[in-house]
Amino acid sequence: MKNFFTILGGMGTIATESLARQLNHRIKITKDQDYLNYVLVNDAQIPDRTAYIKDHSQPNFFLNLREDVLQQAQLKPDFFIMPCNTAHYFYDDLAALTDVPFLHMMRIAVHRFVQDYPDETKIGLIATEGSIYDHLYVDELAKVGRKAELGGPEIQPLVTELIYDNIKQKGVVDAELYHRILRKMHDEYGCEVILLGCTELSLAQEKAPDHPYNIIDPQSIIADVAIELELKIRAGMAPTEAVKKYLY
To answer: Over the stretch 206-247, which tens digit does the pLDDT of each residue have?
Structure first.
């Protein structure tokens, strides 16, 4: 197979499925061959990212991702994407394993926020406890002169309930809970824009988009970027040239 990219997924599986739907339904088609070529690695056995970040005695998820990257690199994809925000904890280590370009989903999302909302100095951030604990988005936002608003102590338990108790454990999206979190971030903490720092939250946005709040959705953004890049590569542009604008 030529002109393809690799998705390092399975964190979790139905969030990865959501990305695949976005890729398949956003491409303009008139025939089967118009769809994108990609390899979707749904490694459902990758240990929980937050558990390891908060407690290094827990299973290290880097080992699974390292194996996946090294296996896939042998196929020579045009680029890698990894639809798990929290897994970007090991981005530098993973990208160093291969010469294949490795897009940084979080960084791309932060730059899209600056591009789309240049006058906003802060963004509401809802994410896994692991991402919050290790300041993954906080640090990326600080690099571009923006601040993350995390809300009060009541926010994280609600976000964790939505991600783990509902989506990861039951495979369902609690739309009312999702909207309540967004409403609190907007109304009580003054967030005109809210960043969905977990792909389970991106799934919630896909399933329950009927709300009035401005959203930065990294999974949705990386889907659009992957489509843009692969179409350019299919048309003859070198992969290294195509991805250059997104290697922040």
So the answer is: 999 999 999 999 999 999 999 999 999 999 999 999 999 999
Annotated catalytic residue, options 65, 82, 84, 94: 84
| Contact between residue 7 and residue 84 where contact means Cβ atoms under 8 Å apart | no
| 198 is annotated as an active-site residue | yes
162 to 25, 156, 215: CA distances (angstroms) = 26, 10, 17
Cis before 12? omega within 30: yes
- What are 30-69's pLDDT values in tens digits? 999 999 999 999 999 999 999 999 999 999 999 999 999 9
Helix 218-234 crosses helix 199-207 at what angle (to 10 degrees)?
90
Contacts of 131 (CB under 8 A, 6+ apart): 50, 85, 86, 137, 197, 198
Alpha-carbon gap, residue 234 to 246, rounded angstroms? 18
Instruction: Please pick, among 23, 198, 204, 243, the residue that the annotation labels catalytic.
Output: 198
212-232 residues labelled b (16+ CB within 10 A) or e (exposed): ebbbbbbbbbbbebbbebbbb
